[in-house]
Hints:
Distance between the termini: 32 Å
Strand order of the largest sheet: 1-2-3-5-4
Structural class: alpha+beta
Number of strands: 5
CATH architecture: 2-Layer Sandwich
CATH topology: HIT family, subunit A
Helix content: 10-25%
CATH superfamily: HIT-like
Number of helices: 2
Number of domains: 1
Largest sheet: 5 strands, antiparallel
Shape: globular
Order of helices and strands: HEEEHEE
Amino acid sequence: MSKTLFEKIAAREVPAALVYEDDLVIAFRDIKPQAPVHVLIVPKKPIPRIAEAKPEDHQILGHLLLKAAQVAKEQGLAESGFRLVFNNGRNAGEAVPHLHCHILGGRSMGWPPG
Length: 114
């Protein structure tokens, strides 16, 4: 099976503007930003989407959420607020079949989204 784009970014096979990395996750700027701050945070373990995560993935998923909040704070979004978005499947806007969280901020967000 071939690597996803995000696996290639984590392996440094494809360049990306990294903003955070540890043993479990990597965060980088989105190449088509939808807000002044638009960062993707991705588990290094290839989980296709949230609906396919397994109970044993709970530690990675919790770590991803905590690090998403940390990255948002480091990007200057703690005071004004930010949105975390997970897309699951084509109709939700999923473009890469590798679980990832969009960190969006730097502008007012509308509701409902999408």
